[in-house]
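Bumping my old thread because nobody answered last time. Still need a sequence for this structure:
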């Protein structure tokens, strides 16, 4: 019950932040998305902007992240997972924080997409015995984003190297369509190129409760089955994610 009260208090706080921010802003504009479900975009936070993210995942786990626009084109932040925080299970485990960095070096043109380079060490499904994530973070990545064909339909794609032990090059591809700044539909294919580390197909909906506060409902690894290297079952995972972004 104590863990549930903590989670509910956090949710209420995130819901209240947009209302407090609205007092100081006469006109609210939906900011560009800096990420989708699992893949990054070329979007960045504005200078003095910040983003707070809370994701609830399988097994009662919670992922928290905080990112800042420290310079005009540079975002810095960190993320951390806490296993079994929600629910009655004992054995809450707080994992080490992971660094997140993104630098947008090109704003895009008529034909060429906006582009950014970054690093994200946050993975999923932590394996304590190996002290590694079974699904690795993006690691070093290059991503481009471009509106295609229809207004508000944006394509995102990129390459990434999750770690420097194997130096495998992976890729990711995603698409989102935003309807009247109220709701966005997201599709993405992640972790492509290597059969020994299978690709993931994710889909979700982002609801813009306010221009600053969004609620994501998504399913990861759709149609996936089998097992990880440690024997843990690999299957579709439902997640709920809350995001609050604004500026100082």
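Sorry it took so long. Here it is:
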């Amino acid at each position: 019950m104590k863990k549930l009260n903590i989670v509910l208090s956090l949710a209420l706080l995130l819901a209240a932040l947009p209302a407090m921010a609205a007092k100081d802003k006469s006109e609210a504009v939906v900011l560009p998305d800096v990420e989708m479900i699992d893949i990054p975009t070329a979007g960045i936070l504005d200078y003095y902007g910040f983003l707070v993210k809370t994701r609830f995942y399988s097994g009662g786990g919670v992922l928290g992240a905080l990112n800042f626009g420290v310079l005009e084109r540079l975002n810095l932040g960190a993320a951390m997972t806490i296993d079994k925080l929600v629910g009655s299970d004992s054995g809450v485990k707080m994992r080490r924080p992971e660094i997140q960095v993104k630098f947008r070096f090109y704003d895009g043109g008529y034909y060429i997409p906006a582009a950014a380079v970054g690093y994200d060490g946050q993975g999923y499904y932590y394996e304590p015995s190996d002290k590694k994530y079974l699904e690795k973070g993006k690691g070093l990545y290059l991503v481009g984003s471009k509106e295609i064909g229809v207004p508000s339909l944006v394509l995102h794609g990129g390459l990434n190297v999750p770690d420097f032990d194997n130096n495998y090059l992976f890729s990711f591809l995603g698409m989102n369509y935003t309807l009247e700044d109220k709701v966005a539909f997201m599709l993405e294919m992640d972790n492509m190129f290597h059969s020994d580390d299978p690709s993931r197909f994710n889909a979700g909906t982002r609801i813009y409760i306010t221009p600053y506060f969004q609620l994501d409902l998504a399913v990861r690894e759709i149609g996936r089955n089998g097992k990880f290297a440690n024997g843990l079952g690999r299957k579709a995972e439902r997640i709920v994610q809350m995001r609050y972004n604004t500026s100082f």
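The chain has a mean pLDDT of 86. Let me know if any region looks off to you.
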